[in-house]
Each structure stands twice: as structure tokens, then as C-alpha cells.
Amino acid sequence: MEGSRIRNLLPMRVGSLPKVGLVVGFVALGIATVTAYLNPATGYELSIYAGTPTTFWIGVVFAFLLSILVVFLVRSHKYRVLGMLLGGLAMTTIVSLPVIRGYYYFGEGDALDHLGIARDMSAGFLPLTESRYPVIHSLATVVHYVSGLPLHHVTLVVLVSFVVCFFVFVPLVVRELTGNVWTAYVGLFSAFLLLPINHQSPPLNFHPTSQAIMYTPVFLFAFFLLYKYRNLRHSTMFLLLSPVFVLLHPQQAANLVAFFGVVAAIQIGYDLLSGHRLERVHKWVAPEVAIYATVFWLWARSLPVFERNLESVLTTLSGQTNFAESTAQRGSSLADVGGSIPEVFAKLFLVSLVYVVLTGLLSMLVLRSLRRAKSHTSLEKVAPDGGADQILLLSIFGGLVPVTMIFLVYLVGGISIQNFRHLAMLMVFATILGSIMIGRTMQYVRGRWSGTAARRSIALVFVVLAALSLIVVFPSPYIYYPSGHVTETQMDGYETTFEHQADSIAFGFVRSDVARYGAAIQGTNRSEDIYYQKLHHGLPDRFCNQSLRRYYDEQTYIPVTEADRVRDPVLWKGFRFDHEDFEYIQSEPGIDRVQSTGGYTLYLVNPKPGSGSDEAQGTDPESPQAIAAECAGQAEGSDSAPS
Fold first, then answer.
1. Within a domain: residue 524?
2. How many domains does the chain have?
3. DSSP state, 602?
4. Closest C-alpha among 93, 73, 94, 71 to residue 82
5. Which residue from 508, 491, 501 is spatially nearest to 561, judged by alpha carbons?
6. Are residues 358 and 435 in the same domain?
7. Is there a cis peptide before residue 609, judged by omega within 30 degrees of 0?
8. Number of neighbouring beta carbons within 10 Å of residue 574
9. Sheet holding 506-507: strands in order across?
10. Cα torsion 512, 518, 523, 527: sign
11. E strand or H helix at 323, and its extent?
12. Angle at the Cα of 165 (from 79 to 345), degrees rounded to 5?
């Protein structure tokens, strides 16, 4: 009797495990988020992984892994939906870490310029028509005015919102292409891997390329709906999104012009060759694609950068490339800091390579279906769904041919880091198509063995893929990259410098680019005229072994940020600068420290006597002493940079 009661209770307890697990997962995620929020960054962080409390990582990783198990191992649809929500919240929380932990800004380089463009727009200095890609800057401006949040904070929120678009629409695209809900689950967790983000370009910060890549699945979803069910509603949706995507980033829009054009051509060609002529004209997407291409051309033809990129492509096609030279240079630099190109490639692109291989295998399956169709009147005879999905997949692979060719031209030509932008677009498609291949593999395993074996296998695969991907969501010393953290003290330090600088004195710099900070603080329109013209080249390597007073023949400002004091000496093992260099500039007679705000210090290098620059020193109302007086309250010994 007792044994019978236990057997009756056992299924109830087993059935309640997913519910209990989900509750624990959401609680763990909540605790992790609160822990991160209560431990904000107090100074420059070389790695956001190391700077964030371990409790956060335990809670968020637990929640994410639990979501994988629930989605793929639990039979209840209700629990699977909650599992997907848990996984989405966990990944969104990770991506939102700079916001949660109070980062002032995230991303140097181009990201600072784009903050400046947004600042120009919000101040009314830059009309929408004068911006190359005004969507994200105008969006940030609108959110800034509506919410009242600081603009630098709003840009990080905009970044996260575009990543969420990627998470939502990749599985929707996969579902639309396959009609299979399990494959859509695979697409969701594939999206969580963020394969297009490669930290070369696009980075995970406020940057039009990054946001365009994250928004691409939205545009693809509209296109595939149009392709499969062409009607007025879907045509209108596609045509409304067309100018949005062009204005989001013309370069990525060009990739989709080529892709959509080939897909439309294959659609027409297949219908004509298979005997379907006028009866399918109403399904052709060529008119909408032509309108999209026209919108792109009307906008891009007026952009000088479009002409420059076209010239670079033509130069590459003529055989003038520097790919080998640039690769050798990067390999040498990595070796100097203890790394190698194969190591960094494996860390950044191993999971991406898996999806590329899966995409290649899927293309082989599609081509095999095409070969089987040779013995029939059309592909519809051999395809279980009437051939529609196979024809569409064949068209997709055809459309990827010109996109891949563009990437190869940029890669072989070594055209800056533009090749990584085209690679990112290819990885959007690899995420989608690789998911479809995983879904087909799952169906094969289910047919060969069992559904349970298939689901367990896929769950295990995603646990491994997630482990390899979560550690490269953000740049970190793991891949020999600094975090991109921009602190409030750095921004305040530069702002004070720009307010009180002597206009006749130019700037040198370590690695933090003065012109970029000028753009972020004062807007690009003003800073480009002022700081780029006043910018000396960077400090010489290991400048403690040289005399900076002889290196510069005129008075020169040298801003040094907390990030400068950490990146080379710690991350890159003294590759260009070491601790001794910053000790030298701190103590060298004739180099004055005129401003210090903890995470930022401004030095003034006075040339050796006889250069003609010292005579006016002391009589200039904007001399170092005057600047120091106006920066009252900033004590001489307030440096808090790491030693």
C-alpha cells in the first residue's frame, strides 16, 4: 500500500520539476541582476567579466543553462515558452551589463564619434539629411528628449534594444523558412550566441554597423514574408523598412541589394524554366526589390565614402592588395604580447566556423535535391512540401554568392577592417542557415533513434556552444582586447581640458585619441576642425628612454587616462608603454602636471630651452599655472591610476 502511494506521487514530483526549476532560474537571474546593479564600476575596468561580481555570473549562467534544458528536454509547450523567456532575459541581462553597472559609456574609437554625432543632432547642429546614417543617432535623440535620460546613457539602451531585435527575429526567420517549431527553438539559441559580433567590426557598442547587423533579421523576415505570401500588406511592410535599413547603414544595405537582387532573379528564372510563366508573375518580388535598390542608389550616390569604397574595391580587383602584409603585422604584434593569430581566431571564430560548416552542409543537401529533380519535370515532384522551401533555400544560397564575393574582395584587399563588416552580414545568414541544418540533424536523429535522444543531443551541443560564446560577448584580456570602458572621470577630465586649454598648444596622446573625445564631448562638427588639426602623432614607444622635451619642438599637452596606464603595461605586457614610462612623465623636470581628476591626468611638455617655446611661458594668461588655478579643488596628488 505504501509502495503504491509512492509510485502515485512520483510522477507528480517529476512533473513539477520544470516548474520548480523555472522559478529557481528566474530568482537566480533576479539576484544576479540586483547584485550587478549594487556593485557599479568605480573606476576603469580592463575586463567587464572580472569587474562584475562572481555572484552575477553564477546566477545568469545557471539561468541560461536551465533555459536550454527546459526548452529541449521538457515536453510541455507552456514550460518551453517560459524557458525561452528565461534564456532571452539572461542574455539580455548580459548584454545590458554596461547599463546595469553604471558605465558612463562603452566603446572608444568610432563609438565616441557616434556619440558626438548624436550630440550634434540633439543640439540641432546636424540635420538628418547631412548624416550618412542618421537612424540610430536620431533614435537616441528622441529617446533622450522623451525619457530625460542623459544622451550617453540612452545610446547604451539603444544598443541593447537592437540586440533584442536580433534575438527575437532570428527564430522568426527560421520558423518562416522551415515551418518547424523545434528548428525555431534552435534558431533562438543560435541567436543568443551573437555570432556576427566579432569585436573588429562590428563591435558591441553604439555604432551604425552593429545596429544594422542586429536589425538585419527584421528586414529579412519582411522579405521572406513577401517572397512566400506576396500581397499588399507584406509589400507595404517591406517598402516601409527599405529606407529605414538604407539610412541605418548604406554599406550593409548594399549587401542586401545584391542578395535580394539574385533571389528575385532566381525566382523569375525558375518559374520560366519550369514552365510556370505568366500565372506566377503576381508572386515575383522583383518590383519591390527594384524600389529598394533605387532607394539605396539615390542615397548612396551622394556619399563620398561610397565613392572611396568603390575605388578601394577597384584597386583590389586590379591586383593591388596588402592582405599578406597586414596579416603578418598583426601576427607579429600578437606574438609580442604572448598570443597568436590561430589562438585569437579559435577564441573568436570557432563557433562561427561551426555554423559556416553547417551552412555548407545545408547547401549540399539543397543541391542534392536539385540533382534529384533532374529526373522529374520539376523540383516540386520530389519535395514533400511541393518544393517551395527547397526553391527558397536554393535562392538564398544563390543570393549569398555576391555577398561572399564582396567579403572576399575586401578581405584579399586588406581594406581597413571593412572586410569584418561584410563577414558580420554573412554570419547573420550563417546563424539562420546553420540553425536550419541543426534542426534537420535533429529530425534525422529522431528518425534514426528517438526524439529524446535528439533533444538531449541538441541540448548538450548548445551547452558547449554557449560556454564558448559567452566568454567573448564583450572584449576582454581573454582575446587580448581592452573592455572599451569609458569612465565618467575620463570624460570629465577631457571636458575640463577642452574648456581651459590654450588654443596655441597642440595635443599628443598615448592611446586614448584626443580627437575622439573631443567629438564625443563637443560634437563632431566643432571637434573635427579643432582637434584633428591640433593633434600631434602619438608618443614614441617606451618614451621613458627618450627625452620628450626634445621629441616635441613646441609646448604639447599629453592627456593620460587610467585606461592608458593599464592597457599596455598590464594587458599587452609593455608592448609599447610600460609602468616606467608613466613614472617618467610624472617626475621628469620640465613636464608639468596641470590637471588631475583621478582617472585622468593632463601633462604639459615644455621643450628644451632654446627652442623658442619657453620664453612666453609664465606670461601667457592660459599658461599651465593658469589652467591649474582654474581647476581648483583637483589636488596634485589625486592620481588613482593603477601602478
1. yes
2. 2
3. E
4. 71
5. 491
6. yes
7. no
8. 17
9. 506-507, 556-561, 600-605, 591-596
10. negative
11. helix 323-336
12. 95
Answer positive or negative: Cα dihedral of 572, 573, 575, 581: positive
DSSP letters for 545-578: GS-HHHH-SS-EEEEEEHHHHHIIIIISTTSS--
Contact between 406 and 309 under an 8 Å Cβ cutoff? The reply is no
Q: In terms of residue numbers, what domain contains 114?
A: 104-448
Q: Is residue 545 part of a domain?
A: yes
The amino acid at residue 157 is V
Do residues 506 and 408 share a domain? Answer: no
Q: Which residues pair with 557 in a beta bridge?
A: 507, 604
Q: Could you give the CA distance from residue 81 to residue 83 in angstroms, rounded to a whole number?
A: 5
Rounded to whole angstroms, the Cα distance separating 352 from 95 reads 19
513 near 521, Cβ under 8 Å?
A: no
- The closest of 295, 269, 293, 294 to 280, measured between CA atoms, is 269
Residue of 600, 608, 602, 597 whose CA lies nearest to 633: 597
Angle at 157 between CA 156 and CA 162, to 5 degrees: 100
Q: Give CA separation, 374 vs 245, 270, 337, 381, 391, in Å.
A: 39, 13, 56, 10, 14
CB distance 41 to 50 below 8 Å: no
The one-letter code for the residue type at 560 is V
Q: Side chain identity at 328, as an amino acid letter? A: A
Q: Are residues 420 and 494 in the same domain?
A: no
User: Looking at the predicted structure, is the pLDDT value of residue 533 above 60?
Assistant: no
The answer to whether residues 46 and 570 touch, using CB atoms and an 8 Å cutoff, is yes
Residue whose C-alpha is closest to residue 259's, from 457, 406, 400 = 400
pTM score = 0.89
339's grid cell: 598570443
| Three cell numbers, residue 171 | 527564430
Whether residue 439 is found in the same domain as residue 491? no
pLDDT digits (tens, 9 = 90+) for 546-602: 889 988 889 999 999 999 999 999 999 898 999 999 999 999 999 999 999 889 999
> What does the buried/exposed string (b/e) look like for 255-264 if buried means 16 or more CB atoms within 10 Å of the residue's CB?
bbbbbbbbbb
- Between CA 143 and CA 164 the distance in angstroms is 17
Tell whether 108 is covered by a domain: yes
Alpha-carbon gap, residue 144 to 165, rounded angstroms: 20
Looking at residue 633, its pLDDT comes to 35
pLDDT in tens, 239-271: 999 999 999 999 999 999 999 999 999 999 988
Nine-digit cell string for 559: 592627456
* Torsion angle, alpha carbons of 100, 103, 106, 109, to 10: 180
d(C-alpha 628, C-alpha 623), whole Å: 9
